[in-house]
Amino acid sequence: MTNNSVDEQQVEDDLEQIAKIRSIAWQRKPENLLALIEAIQIKLLMEDISRRQRQVYRTIIDYFEDVLEERIEKDDNTKLSEVRESVSGYIRNVLKSLDD
Q1: Is the dihedral of CA 84, 29, 64, 97 positive or negative?
Q2: How many CA atoms lie within 13 A of 100 on its CB side?
Q3: pTM of structure
Q4: CB 83: neighbour CB atoms within 10 A?
């Protein structure tokens, strides 16, 4: 393989990794997905992250939020207010740990 060659296996592996990230939105409980969204938002606020990295994280947040909204709309047993309430304790703990 020369330096100009495409490593097809690496491209396939990377596509798999992207698919795994996308699947998180569908595999996790709504509460865990919302907690992840909130944790990423806190990361964006607290860490010195390049503009490009911020754009990637914001895109992931947007995707996760869209999927969460769709999942809640389709599931009569899941209410966004209940999901938010269950995540609020987690967020308080994360924020408190930042103070310590």
Answers
A1: positive
A2: 6
A3: 0.83
A4: 20
Per DSSP, the three-state class of 6 is coil
Whose tokens are 């969460």? That residue is 68
Cβ(41)–Cβ(49) below 8 Å: no
How far is residue 28 from each of residues 1, 20, 22, 79, measured CA to CA in Å? 40, 12, 11, 16
The confidence score (pLDDT) of residue 2 equals 55
Cβ-based neighbours of 84, under 8 Å, separated by 6 or more: 34
| DSSP code of residue 2 | -
Share of the chain above pLDDT 70, in %: 96
Contacts of 49 (CB under 8 A, 6+ apart): 43, 57
Length of the chain, please?
Answer: 100
Q: What are phi and psi of 81, to 5 degrees?
A: -60, -40
Rounded distance between C-alpha atoms, residue 16 and residue 2, angstroms: 24
Decide if 35 contacts 28 (C-beta within 8 A): no
